[in-house]
Amino acid sequence: xxxxxxxxxxxxxxxxxxxxxxxxxxxxxxxxxxxxxxxxxxxxxxxxxxxxxxxxxxxxxxxxxxxxxxxxxxxxxxxxxxxxxxxxxxxxxxxxxxxxxxxxxxxxxxxxxxxxxxxxxxxxxxxxxxxxxxxxxxxxxxxxxxxxxxxxxxxxxxxxxxxxxxxxxxxxxxxxxxxxxxxxxxxxxxxxxxxxxxxxxxxxxxxxxxxxxxxxxxxxxxxxxxxxxxxxxxxxxxxxxxxxxxxxxxxxxxxxxxxxxxxxxxxxxxxxxxxxxxxxxxxxxxxxxxxxxxxxxxxxxxxxxxxxxxxxxxxxxxxxxxxxxxxxxxxxxxxxxxxxxxxxxxxxxxxxxxxxxxxxxxxxxxxxxxxxxxxxxxxxxxxxxxxxxxxxxxxxxxxxxxxxxxxxxxxxxxxxxxxxxxxxxxxxxxxxxxxxxxxxxxxxxxx
Length: 447
Ligand SMILES: *[C@@H]1O[C@H](CO)[C@@H](O)[C@H](O)[C@H]1NC(C)=O
Ligand SMILES: *[C@@H]1O[C@H](CO)[C@@H](O)[C@H](O)[C@H]1NC(C)=O
Ligand SMILES: *[C@@H]1O[C@H](CO)[C@@H](O)[C@H](O)[C@H]1NC(C)=O
Ligand SMILES: *[C@@H]1O[C@H](CO)[C@@H](O)[C@H](O)[C@H]1NC(C)=O
Known about the structure:
Belongs to the peptidase A1 family. This protein has 447 residues and is mainly β.
């Protein structure tokens, strides 16, 4: 069965379940916002952008392994603190409250909680816009411990009628703590492609104690696949984004939710690829996919079957992430990819023990990358993600070298991450209701 009948069946399935609802109330709407790169206003040149991105990527990859639980615990709560992935690459512009105040959020597909800095601050990092004040908003309502919205963040000494407190800690040391509330979020307020759309009753964290790298954000928007995620809370359960050219850093990238989250496929469905999302009990927020193999040109690379499988203990697997720039592969697969790229370039691997993204000296006078074949990532159900040369290589003009934008993650059981350099100009659609990732090559600047 090809992708068209399957899509059609899914549509029927959704209609069947949506129809009793939609006769009484209007169907759930779609929402659109824009992702801007954290470095978009920094005025960095290409080489500097790459180095900054590589540093962030390395730190993020280290926080995306299962073993990252905090070893320190507070005196009253001895459970290990779950650490959420730290670092981010994109900011998403929203507004919060009534009247709306700007909410510039770090977009994180690796975690679920949406939070913003909140008055009265015990500790807040500097932000350009006024800090959100729940007393000044007519749409704020508190969340108590008995509420469903409290379950994912429930802590000790939380009793039915007490305010629901949360504390969220990220792997890079950033954190936010405060109380949960319900608010109205407004989309599309500043980009003007569409009139602003507001949606009420979104559970969020009102953060009065916040720290860590903020990248000029005023909080975080959780785009994972858990119940507290904005994707789940907006209904329909679909998220789509389309990342524009990394080096056109000032271009925004569209992000779509709900009924607007559809692939803008111009090829009549032929190019749309779909693969199941895999669920991990240990990491319910992450978007796992089954990577079965990698080809470069016509050759399937000699990577052992099962190398990227998610294991029962929660190690291994591959996740799709918008907060990691370079794809990172479990060590054994990384070595195979690097060796083959070295063959294609006719160069030896400079440092065979390094897990950093490798660079190869360019011939004198080179001014661009040489011709190279496409790399194809083969996902389960026959979904192939074709990466053109510019989605996996980069020409570093300052160093006159050709660099592979893949890194390795140490050990045989590490989690691999599909990074956003590889996702440039590929529209991604995550359907958390059906449990499927679909993607199609697209000029994201035209979406
Ligand atoms: C908002 O109201 C609460 C409860 O009345 C109070 O504790 C808090 O200090 C107020 N916040 C601000 C920023 O005034
Ligand atoms: C935050 O914004 C200021 C200017 O508004 C800029 O100088 C600074 O580099 C930005 N910081 C980051 C981490 O982007
Ligand atoms: C790996 O899996 C593929 C497809 O399932 C199969 O054709 C191939 O023989 C397997 N290779 C090994 C070494 O098991
Ligand atoms: C090779 O990589 C390893 C691991 O990153 C590093 O410790 C070593 O210094 C590198 N060697 C050279 C010659 O760069």
